[in-house]
Write a structure and sequence with these properties.
Oligomer: single chain
Number of strands: 9
Radius of gyration: 19 Å
Helix content: 25-40%
Largest sheet: 5 strands, parallel
Number of helices: 11
Structural class: alpha/beta
Distance between the termini: 16 Å
Strand content: 15-25%
Low-confidence stretches: none
Bound molecules: phosphoric acid mono(formamide)ester
Length: 303
């Protein structure tokens, strides 16, 4: 497998992360300086699952670097419907593009495709597995608003199926971060993730309520219950709407609390929170551009 595929955040050192974030900050300060950097380069988009932010921000990023996309388009209108395998599809599209971006519903899909392709591959989300480029923009947002060291973060919602949670939790083990996980009992972190965090020496605590820990948080990272991943709709209904951040919840929050969410949200953050100084989730989504530009810039350098 190529060393420059980005499959998960376990492969990233603190230095790797800081290099991306520093480069993203440089791009953010003067995007026009990078406008022709990758003229003529093509990014292959393979999205087997819905996406707004990740897909559009990768497209924006490559275009802002002077390149363009080739998009497989919706699965329904591709030859996947004729039975073509994921590996074959990727091996074909790598011949059309200088790098590939893959989103797929199956955990492990990006790792598998990484064994077959010779152009850089970016995992844009594999089932309940990982979402490393989301994590890098999350870290960028945390660094801008709260700093990455001596950080107390609450990560709340669907910790079982939420791939952004898994990727963020691993990445934070590179920093002096105290991680508090808040979820219903049925949506706790998978055992494998807890084991890896323990092995990495992470400071981790689990809660079923937010009240006790909220006053101590620098950042609250809220996630959607991943309805599409539940094998049984009744299990989803049993937990849907259990957690909502609203004005009442925020009465106990520190004044400088940063609230983040990878989006899309359903009802876990009330719209009234959007107008508060706490709300950073739209800024977070916009940070996808400099961060993905930084990643593409370094990945395409030798292509
Ligand atoms: N945060 C995120 O991955 O959003 P999309 O599913 O819209 O890409």
């Amino acid at each position: 497998m190529r060393h420059d595929h980005l499959i998960d955040t376990k492969q990233l050192t603190r230095q790797d992360i800081e290099n991306v974030l520093d480069h993203a900050a440089e791009i953010d300060a003067d995007p026009s300086a990078f406008a022709d950097r990758h003229a003529g380069k093509l990014l292959g988009l393979m999205f087997y699952e819905p996406s707004t932010r990740t897909k559009m921000s990768f497209e924006t990023s490559i275009k802002r670097l002077g390149g363009d996309i080739v998009d497989m388009g919706p699965v329904e209108s591709s030859s996947v419907k004729k039975g073509e395998s994921l590996a074959d599809t990727a091996r074909v599209i790598e011949g059309y593009a200088d790098a590939l971006v893959l989103r797929h519903p199956s955990q492990g899909a990006a790792k598998m495709v990484g064994e077959f392709v010779d152009v850089p591959l970016l995992n844009a989300g594999d089932g309940a597995g990982h979402h490393p480029t989301q994590t890098l923009l999350d870290l960028y947002t945390i660094r801008e608003n709260a700093g990455l060291d001596d950080l107390t973060i609450g990560i709340m919602g669907d910790l079982k199926y939420g791939r952004t949670v898994h990727s963020l939790a691993y990445a934070l083990t590179n920093f002096d971060a105290h991680q508090h996980f808040i979820s219903p009992g049925s949506l706790k972190l998978p055992r494998s993730v807890r084991y890896d965090l323990h092995e990495a020496g992470a400071s981790v605590r689990e809660h079923t309520d937010i009240e006790a820990i909220l006053p101590n948080l620098d950042v609250l990272y809220v996630t959607r219950i991943q309805r599409e991943r539940f094998p049984d709709e009744n299990e989803y209904r049993a937990v849907a709407g259990d957690y909502q951040i609203d004005f009442e919840t925020l009465e106990a929050a520190p004044d400088d609390l940063t609230i983040m969410h990878p989006l899309p949200r359903v009802d876990e953050i009330a719209p009234e929170v959007d107008e508060t100084e706490h709300a950073k989730y739209f800024e977070q989504a916009h940070n996808g551009i400099p961060v993905r530009m930084a990643l593409l810039d370094s990945m395409l350098e030798d292509q």
